[in-house]
DNA sequence: TCGCTTT
């Protein structure tokens, strides 16, 4: 790294505004000409303004600094398109009441007898119709939720009608509330204060401990004021629930799957009264590694009718098939385009030649003005740890590291530091890729190239949450060529640009075949050369 | 397809 970069970094070349509010305010937004017209009729049409999650994009403090002097190798200059988008964000961010959102988003709904979308949280106050406990509304308000997002308008009435559901909505658009709110209505009364049949009634299953923790916190906010018993399942809480009397008072358990399976096998838990199962990050939960556990959990829920709701921002066809096979007469909701990042996230690719070139490129990046905290993804725990160590040695302030190889306490502490704004540069792995909502994160760097579109979409979705803008930079080396085009396609589809030569790369399948054949490209300095090697590939 | 996650 350059001496100047080192100087800048070691004297703390960044500033961080700790006063940045974490809470987002949702704008009250009525467009009367659509009022009263909300019905499944507009299932595949354009979503009315008041249903669009972008309407609450009014939080504009801390506009990011311009990064127009990045000299990383292969870094693309800002294009006209980028400038346009920035204009849009600016306009969008300033609007409060009546202006049109810059991006129109569609909600597509498929299935039989789809319940009408709700217009507002206020509409849910019709207790005879929806049975949402009244204290939920004041808790919504005090948590800053004023109007529902797109996924919430569609999914809340579906879950209230006890229908099975697959819901796909982009990162940071409020999926958690879309299932938690109706769960409280379905449960209606805390088990502790009712004569209902006893036992756990709802499960929320998620892929990581940190995400379970975060959802538990959201759940507690909604539960305030009544005796709801919401359990973040852990070894400790599992022991606490080993007595049936304690279990009978539990309303909702939030957990990772293996913990639940362990408790089931130990006989410390039974799901005979479970009426609702939510799989968050559903495509991840239906991966081969989790599938057996999920089946065991679902199988243990042996009531005649168990409502299932699956949520994610991404759902590859294979996972969707698995999901649909588990559901009864399901409704499928898609907000925006499946497997696509939010347009508010500015995406770019940065060519870094090879692995040893990554660190200098990162230091160049960090030497420019940036908005901490920056979230940096690596491909392995070891690489996360060693990159963090190197940055600390170099003298960069407030570097942090979080992966599943750390102890529970180390993981919790790292998340806390992140939430308090103490981490400026957080190095992490896939464990942080899904669901985590650090509202201050404005910039994500893929230090190691993501292996799937889903990984890419979720990683960069750690920024641009709840209508804020965000920025995502992805490093790529010659070795990433087999996966480059599919990520480039996502970026292009979002309306951003990639180096033109990438669009001319051969089909990924051919690249993969070459990789599997272990044909090494000679040390390619100029990436454009790889185009010329198509013929050699064809001859194989 | 990898390593990631999961008592």
UniProtKB/TrEMBL annotation:
Listed Basic residues bias regions: 509-519
InterPro entries linked to this entry: DDX52/Rok1_DEADc (IPR044764), DEAD/DEAH_box_helicase_dom (IPR011545), DEAD_box_RNA_helicase (IPR050079), Helicase_ATP-bd (IPR014001), Helicase_C-like (IPR001650), P-loop_NTPase (IPR027417), RNA-helicase_DEAD-box_CS (IPR000629)
Enzyme class: hydrolase
UniProt-listed GO biological process terms: maturation of SSU-rRNA
Keyword Hydrolase in record: yes
UniProt EC number: 3.6.4.13
Region of interest: Disordered: 58-87, 509-540
Statement: the UniProt record of this protein carries the keyword Nucleotide-binding: yes
UniProt keyword annotations, A-Z: ATP-binding, Helicase, Hydrolase, Nucleotide-binding, RNA-binding
Reaction equation(s) it catalyzes: ATP + H2O = ADP + phosphate + H(+)
GO cellular component, one term: cytosol
SMART domains: DEXDc, HELICc
Residue intervals of the Helicase ATP-binding domain: 156-333
Pfam families (UniProt xref): DEAD (PF00270), Helicase_C (PF00271)
Sequence ranges assigned to domain Helicase C-terminal in this UniProt record: 358-506
Record GO terms (molecular function): ATP binding; hydrolase activity; RNA binding; RNA helicase activity
Annotated family: Belongs to the DEAD box helicase family. DDX52/ROK1 subfamily.
Name of the protein in question: RNA helicase
Organism: Pholiota conissans
């Amino acid at each position: 790294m350059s001496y100047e970069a080192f100087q800048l970094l070691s004297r703390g070349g960044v500033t961080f505004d700790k006063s940045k509010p974490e809470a987002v305010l949702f704008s009250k937004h009525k467009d009367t000409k659509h009022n009263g017209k909300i019905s499944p009729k507009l299932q595949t049409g354009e979503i009315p303004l008041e249903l669009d999650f972008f309407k609450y994009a009014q939080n504009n403090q801390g506009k990011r600094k311009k990064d127009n002097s990045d000299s990383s190798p292969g870094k693309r200059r800002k294009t006209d398109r980028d400038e346009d988008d920035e204009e849009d964000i600016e306009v969008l961010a300033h609007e409060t009441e009546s202006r049109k959102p810059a991006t129109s988003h569609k909600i597509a709904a498929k299935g039989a007898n789809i319940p009408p979308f709700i217009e507002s949280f206020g509409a849910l106050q019709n207790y005879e119709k929806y049975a949402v406990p009244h204290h939920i509304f004041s808790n919504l308000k005090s948590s800053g939720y004023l109007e529902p997002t797109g996924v919430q308008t569609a999914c809340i009435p579906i879950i209230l009608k006890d229908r099975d559901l697959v819901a796909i909505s982009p990162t940071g658009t409020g999926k958690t509330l879309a299932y938690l709110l109706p769960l409280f209505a379905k449960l209606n009364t805390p088990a502790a204060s009712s004569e209902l049949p006893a036992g756990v009634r709802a499960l929320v299953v998620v892929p990581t401990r940190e995400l379970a923790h975060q959802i538990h916190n959201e759940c507690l906010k909604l539960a305030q004021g009544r005796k709801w018993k919401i359990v973040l399942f852990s070894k400790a809480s599992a022991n606490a629930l080993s007595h049936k009397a304690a279990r009978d008072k539990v309303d909702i358990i939030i957990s990772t799957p293996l913990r639940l399976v362990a408790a089931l096998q130990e006989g410390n838990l039974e799901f005979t009264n479970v009426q609702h199962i939510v799989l968050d990050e559903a495509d991840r939960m239906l991966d081969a590694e989790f599938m057996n556990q999920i089946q065991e959990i679902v199988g243990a829920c042996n009531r005649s009718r168990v409502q299932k709701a699956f949520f994610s921002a991404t759902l590859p066809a294979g996972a969707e098939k698995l999901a649909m096979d588990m559901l009864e007469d399901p409704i499928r909701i898609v907000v925006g385009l499946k497997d696509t990042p939010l347009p508010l996230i500015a995406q770019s690719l940065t060519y870094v030649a090879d692995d040893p070139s990554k660190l200098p490129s990162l230091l160049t990046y960090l030497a420019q003005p940036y908005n901490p905290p920056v979230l940096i993804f690596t491909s392995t725990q070891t690489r996360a740890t060693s990159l963090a160590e190197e940055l600390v040695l170099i003298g960069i302030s407030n570097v942090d590291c979080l992966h599943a190889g750390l102890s529970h306490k180390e993981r919790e502490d790292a998340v806390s530091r992140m939430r308090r704004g103490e981490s400026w540069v957080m190095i992490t792995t896939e464990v942080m890729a899904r669901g985590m909502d650090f509202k201050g994160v404005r910039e994500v760097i893929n230090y190691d190239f993501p292996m799937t579109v889903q990984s890419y979409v979720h990683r960069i979705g750690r920024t641009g949450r709840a209508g804020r803008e965000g920025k995502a930079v992805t490093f790529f080396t010659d070795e990433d060529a087999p996966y480059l085009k599919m990520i480039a396609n996502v970026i292009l589809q979002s309306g951003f640009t990639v180096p033109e030569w990438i669009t001319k790369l051969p089909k990924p399948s051919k690249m993969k075949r070459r990789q599997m054949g272990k044909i090494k490209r000679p040390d390619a300095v100029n990436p454009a050369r790889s185009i010329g090697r198509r013929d050699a590939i064809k001859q194989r």
